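User: I'll paste a sequence; please echo it back and then give the predicted structure.

Assistant: Echoing your sequence first, then the prediction.
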Amino acid sequence: MDASELAELRTTYIFGPTEGSSWGLTYEGIEARLRERDTDTFIRIDEGGEGPVRGSVMHFGITVGEEDLEGMAKLSPEGIAVEDCTAHAAAEFIQWLRDSVLPDGSDITLNTEWGLEADLLDELVPHVPRPRLVAALLTHLEATGGLD
């Protein structure tokens, strides 16, 4: 698979704090940051219950570049994800997290739906300019295997 094909692949990107740390996320805080971007954005909080996701979860819509994406956030375990997303859009989402949602200097771990299926460990998202961040995300996708 060449680089342009790899860049078009879509998966769920999952972000969390490093082991033993917390971002101090609240649904109210995430909602406020989302509404700063788009006052009419879709936001719904489910209290949990039956099914594979236990505990409450926030579902939301976010426009990243030209794309309208859906995401979700959980307070326990703490994390935020963006679904059906390319590496370029994920890099822009990471930048928004760093600039608007997370405490200054927060580290972010990354995995993807495919990475979890391949038993890959979460990896630290580097603090690098956007083009190098996209390259790191593409490297992660390659490491998941099975892309041929």
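The longest strand covers residues 67-75. Residues 59 and 72 are 4 Å apart (CA to CA).
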